[in-house]
Design a protein that fits this description.
Length: 192
């Protein structure tokens, strides 16, 4: 069993990106919650047992190179899967009379806050990471059905590209890709 105490680099770095071009790569796939632990034991997709023991405060990022055998040109690279995200669309509130819209926004905030769900608001949409099962989160939303508000579940990767790095950290706890400095503006309209 290999014990990883230090990350060798990241596949986003020019050096590693070139080195890994013709290498065979095995992935250590982690959830974003796993990625927040500095000690863990998992098997790679290829069945290689790995133990990670990083120093306190160090965490794995997507694309981190954990193991490299230069002769065999073989690498183990960390791959982080982001959890899905519930996107709560509040744009419908703009159609309501002001007082009703304020009331609805407060009710929605109350429903989300009661669950202690982290949330990021961007362009009239509240993004909430899936900390519970879809059915559970959907039931909470349906119980507190707020007029003018619809919700949908999206892939974490799609949502990450709409957020600034500090917003993504709020939702994904630092497990987003380190190399995503740029930022796309997608306008998706979901109507339930």
């Amino acid at each position: 069993m290999d014990i990883v105490e230090k990350v060798l680099g990241n596949r986003a770095d020019a050096v590693w990106s070139a080195r890994l071009k013709d290498a065979s790569i095995d992935a250590l796939v982690l959830s974003q919650w796993d990625a927040q632990k500095n000690r863990l034991r998992r098997e790679t997709e290829g069945g290689v047992p790995m133990a990670v023991a990083l120093e306190r405060g160090a965490f794995l990022r997507d694309g981190d190179v954990l193991y490299w055998d230069g002769e065999k040109r073989f690498a183990v690279v960390c791959s982080i899967r982001l959890c899905p995200v519930m996107a709560v669309n509040m744009r419908g509130l703009e159609e309501l009379p002001r007082e009703e819209a304020l009331c609805a926004a407060v009710r929605l905030g109350h429903a989300l806050g009661n669950q202690h769900w982290p949330a990021v608001v961007k362009k009239g949409v509240v993004y909430v990471p899936m900390t519970a099962d879809k059915k559970v989160m959907g039931a909470v939303m349906d119980t507190h059905a707020v007029p003018g508000v619809t919700y949908d579940f999206l892939a974490g990767e799609d949502v990450r590209d709409r957020l600034r790095p500090e917003e993504a950290r709020l939702l994904f706890g630092g497990a987003e890709r380190g190399e995503h400095g740029h930022h796309h503006d997608h306008h998706h309209h979901h109507h339930a």
